[in-house]
Protein: Peptide/nickel transport system ATP-binding protein
Amino acid sequence: MTLQVTDLTIDIAGRRVVDGVSFDVPDGARVGIIGESGSGKSLTALAIMGLLPEEATAGGSIRWNDHELLGLSDRELAAVRGDEIGIVFQEPQTALNPIRTVGRQIAEPIRIHDGASKKEAWERAVKAAERMLLPDPERIVKRYPHQLSGGQRQRVAIAMALVARPRLLIADEPTTALDVTIQAEILELMRDLVEDAGMSLVFITHDLAVLSQIAEFGVVLEHGKVVEAAPVSTLLTSPSSPVTQGLLRDATATLWRPEGIS
Structure:
């Protein structure tokens, strides 16, 4: 299955915030969308999922498996969200329900999309927690979000997105709020899970160092427009746009440098 975004535009309150963005995500590919704050990268991700704010209007085309997603109703999109396309947001604390155990929240997509029984869904939730390398998974799934660390909550959020076995995962800056060590662990785990499942990935970030750890191809945005699109190795070694050059300088100034940069 392939995602094709063509000439995507997004307007909010009469102001164009995404202007003519185009990129493809072939089956099994890992594509990064990178840019500074306000570049339109997160809005692009929300448009794919049909989750734009009410005041936003989108134009152009977003095709998934040769079916147009723009213009579908919430009911029609519900058949795609979670089942075919999953999403992980930046801050799991706001994505997780504080009054439900994390195991119940992991199990819910299994019951909705696979029609599994409570018992089967719970067993699969425990296995999902185990795959995410959460400690003592049978015990941790009985906990509430506030009882977990930030890194553990993000692992739960990723488990929720992957448990229904989507063909495409969208990850919107899922490690930004975590320290560098936990970031690296979760990025490696996410990359391995995506590769093992043969799914595609759209990874949103402002950090070229992070992008280098997980994506093969990068699309660079500035003020809602694509300013460069190239293999990540090219973005790291010979970026052509001033925006990418600036992102590379920022990346090499951190303690955690992207691969290939000394």
In short: The beta strands are 3-12, 15-25, 30-34, 56-64, 67-68, 85-88, 168-172, 200-205, 217-222, 225-231. Residues 50 and 73 are 9 Å apart (CA to CA).
